[in-house]
Amino acid sequence: MLAMAETSESSKQRLRLRVRGVVQGVGFRPFVFNLARACELTGLVGNDSNGVFIEVEGTPKHLQRFQQALKENPPPLSHILSIKAEAIAPRNDKDFVIVASKTEANANTLISPDICVCEDCLRELFDPTNRRYRYPFINCTNCGPRFTITKDIPYDRPQTTMAGFQMCAECLREYDDPTNRRFHAQPNACAECGPQVQFVGAEAEQKNPIAQTQASLCAGNIVAIKGIGGFHLACDAYNDSALQTLRERKGRVDKPFAVMVRDVETALRFVEIDEAEKLLLTSKERPIVLLKKKPSNLSALIAPGNEYLGVMLPYSPLHYLLLDSKLDALVMTSGNYSNEPIIKDNDEALQNLATLADAFLLHNRDIHVQCDDSVLRVFEGHELPIRRSRGYAPFPVRLPFSLPSVLAVGGELKSTFCLVKDDYAFMSQHLGDMENLETLQAFEKSLQQMQAIFRVTPEIIAADNHPRYLSSQWAHNHRGARQLIGVQHHHAHIAAVLAENQWNGDALVIGFSFDGTGYGTDGAIWGGEVLLADYSTFQRVAHLRYAPLPGGDASIKRPYRTALAYLWQAGIAWDEVLPSVAACPANERKILQQQLEKNLNTAQTSSMGRLFDAVAALAGVRQTVTYEAQAAIEFEAMMDTRVADAYTFALCEGEPLQIDFAALLRAVVADVQAQVPVPTIAAKFHNAVANLICDVALHFRAKFNLQQVALSGGVFQNVTLLQTAKAKLLAEHFTVFTHKLVPPNDGGLALGQAVIAGKLSSEN
Ligand code: ZN
Ligand code: ZN
Ligand code: FE
User: Fold this and answer.
1) Shortest-distance ligand to the CA of residue 464
2) Is the CB of residue 376 less than 8 Å from the CB of residue 745?
3) Is residue 125 part of a domain?
4) Which domain holds residue 596?
5) 117 CA to centre of ligand 1 in angstroms
6) Does the pLDDT value for residue 4 go beyond 50?
7) Which residues, in sequence order, are CB contacts of 518 under 8 Å at separation 6+?
8) Which of 96-100, 105-109, 306-310 is the least confident region?
């Protein structure tokens, strides 16, 4: 063997490899360095704005072994999208080396999302003999913050918010040593040279800020804690009075809070966890996972009326330190006022969270862009995102085709934007509801960052057709010479689910776009829409029959008003036995009646979300809500899944087909009058909507011979409905597209907008 290796000297070859994907800041170069040496190759590896470039020289056999390992066992945080190889002339270099980073104008590389602390770092964190023992910013090439500290590419320390920290001799030695697991770990730091935590509050003098924070939490206080993507407001999850105070201060009556628990074993005391859920909960993305509650001693004020609890595990070393005490479960909610972006800077927090928090745990590693926690649930073994943010953004959604560069600005609620470059759709993190200046500013800053790190200069802007959305107005004001394409809200939902499923778009699909609110082409509020759609066109072939929504927002917050309006529309008397009628004061009823009869200050809506509200209210679930979709969520939670019975919608011929709910409401009212239990009514209604979807799909398959069905819009966060509808469609042999990568709610809207606009502009 040895003799053969010696004689093969003349047969040395050199390859130039170009690796694209998430390959920077994830330990790729040291991995290549060590692999090349192990394979007895010489050459070089480096980063540039397009990813990683490699030159390797050696025998064909060694080169092959190298290429195979590169493909099959890359570093855990990397995500290779492509490897291109070409043969070049041998150079006979002596060694394998890592070369300096290069910046190029037209770049194409990906930045890793922020990743939870790894096992190796955790071990060191709790090892009293380690020099980083209990250091809250411990990290390595396999873990730590990335996206939220990155200002530009290539991903190197001067381009991050770590630029101001000078590494000590020891840290620098690790950073420069290719065999060290902190080689070129840009956020590398230790207690000597790196960021520090600071406690601000009235607690008795203790030297250790973490111990002070723990003491404050144990005393029932609310502490604003700076994390990876912004501030959390934290309190002891067992403490009712702390929760009560938090709810009062935040003005958040019922909307569920998420809980951070020490570990899976602890979580099992509060929630049920199956294998798929456990995988997601412990994944490096560390999202909030919605899990079925068990009876437990956690405060009942965390998620009242909800059968699910949002649970996450600690993800930063700081979280691990906080929970390494008698505290094993903390409520951790975004540090902000309702629906504004999460606060990320110390000064801003001290100023704006002063009325919400009793104390602060600050640190001086700046967060360049904020990034809220992601929220997911597991549906039929796969992920169903409710909010796609930390751990996921800015990892792209791969499109089934290349498009011109597009910026899609999203909608209004749960705002995100999307940048398209070639066949990548870069979805931003969750920004909040685009209803205020703060969200708009966060949008602009994130947009600037993402345009910089992905080197995208959008030629086309896509926006919702709604003339009063702040996002649409921004698009209008900032379009410059660029093409601005308005996209219908429900078409965007359908395009989003098609695109993430890699649908090539060569046939029309039957799209069910069910949500609360979206601007229709006739100016009405749509939301119970059936569209025959592809990426560039749609036809509204069926919809829920219009009903009046008296006073718009006033009805959304008071579902009893919606219920009364829907009864009026269906010609059903307001019987005082009905909880919604009883909940409406007599004088309000009188005004409502006049409003409806004279059509004063009412909007027409075909919203499925509102129909859920109306039926839930009629059944007596609740008459007023304090957060979006609360009545529908509680209605779903109450449902008796053993009931197979269903109400029926009537399909009335017309163009478009009218989905009539009058008979359905009459049946609901009769059941309420007959004191049928609410869980039965809930089941019969959910089954009715699932049957409706299947019946309408069959109707259009018979008419147009279409095979594909797409389900999108916020209503499909209701997994009971999603599951029932999907099962019925599959039983009829439809192909069914549902969400796995982006949320069905408006958080996924920008993806659909981007693809529609990109397609339209390339067709013209
Ligand atoms: Zn690590
Ligand atoms: Zn150091
Ligand atoms: Fe929507």
Assistant:
1) 3
2) no
3) no
4) 515-737
5) 5
6) no
7) 411, 464, 466, 488, 489, 490, 493, 525, 526, 527, 529
8) 105-109
- Are 358 and 481 part of one and the same domain? no
Q: Residue 441: inside a domain, yes or no?
A: yes
Whether 96 contacts 43, CB under 8 Å: yes
Asked if 216 and 205 touch (Cβ cutoff 8 Å), the reply is no
Answer yes or no: is 410 within a domain. yes
**How far apart are the C-alpha atoms of 45 and 100, rounded to whole Å?**
9
Give 9's pLDDT tier (boundaries 50, 70, 90).
Answer: low
Calculate Rg over the CA atoms of the chain.
28
CATH code where residue 460 lies: 3.30.420.360
Ligand 3 centroid distance, CA of 378 (Å): 21
In this structure, the answer to whether residues 535 and 632 fall within a common structural domain is yes
Q: Are residues 576 and 725 in the same domain?
A: yes
Per-residue confidence (pLDDT) for residue 168, from 0 to 100: 98
CB burial class (10 A; 0-12, 13-18, 19+) of residue 485? Answer: buried
Return the pLDDT at 305. Answer: 86
Same domain, 561 and 526: yes
% of the chain surpassing 70 pLDDT? 97
Whole-angstrom distance, CA of residue 425 vs CA of residue 756:
12
Calpha distance 491→488 (Å, rounded): 5
pLDDT (tens digit per residue) in 710-754: 999 999 999 999 999 999 999 999 999 999 999 999 999 999 999
Report the pLDDT averaged over residues 280-302.
97
Q: How far apart are CA 719 and CA 628, in angstroms?
A: 17
Ligand nearest to the CA of 190: 2
Name the packing angle between helices 678-704 and 719-731 (round to 10°): 40
- The whole-model pTM stands at 0.93
Higher-confidence residue of 21 and 624: namely 624
- Six-digit token pair at 413? 């609620």
Same domain? For 565 and 486 the reply is: no
> Is the C-alpha dihedral spanning 664, 666, 669, 674 positive or negative?
negative
Distance of CA 144 from the midpoint of ligand 2 (Å): 16
pLDDT in the model for residue 107: 59
Q: How far does Cα 201 stand from its chain's mean position?
A: 33
Amino acid at 637: A
Q: How much is the average pLDDT of 668-687?
A: 98
- Check whether residue 205 and residue 345 sit in a common domain: yes
Distance (angstroms) between ligand 2 centre and the Cα of 118 equals: 19
Q: Across-strand partners of 422?
A: 403
Instruction: Write out pLDDT tens, residues 362-413.
Output: 999 999 999 999 999 999 999 999 999 999 999 999 999 999 999 999 999 9
DSSP-derived secondary structure for 338-385? TTSPPP-SHHHHHHHSTTT-SEEEEESS--SS--PPPEEEEETTEEEE
Number of H helices, E strands in the chain: 24, 29
| Residues, CB within 5 angstroms of ligand 3 (ion) | 515, 518, 746
Could you list which residues have their CB under 5 Å from ion ligand 2? 168, 171, 190, 192-193
Mean pLDDT of 607-632: 96
As a 3-state breakdown, the chain gives helix, strand, coil percent values, each rounded to 5, of: 35, 25, 40
> Is the CB of residue 515 less than 8 Å from the CB of residue 713?
yes
Ligand lying closest to the C-alpha of residue 138: 1
Number of structural domains the chain divides into: 4
Whether residue 536 is contained in a domain is answered as yes
Mean pLDDT of the region 605-623: 97
Q: Taking Cα atoms as reference points, which of 147, 138, 229 lies closest to residue 188?
A: 138
Closest-approaching ligand to the CA atom of 169: 2
Q: Are residues 730 and 759 in the same domain?
A: no
**CATH number of domain containing 603:** 3.30.420.40
Rounded to an integer, the average pLDDT of 520-548 is: 97
166 Cα–ligand 2 center, Å: 8
The answer to whether the CB of 399 falls within 8 A of the CB of 419 is: no
Domain match, 495 and 591 both:
no
Residues 6 or more apart whose CB falls under 8 angstroms from that of 37 comprise: 96
**Rounded to whole angstroms, how far apart are CA atoms 676 and 638?**
13
**What distance in angstroms lies between residue 349's CA and the mean position of ligand 1's atoms?**
28
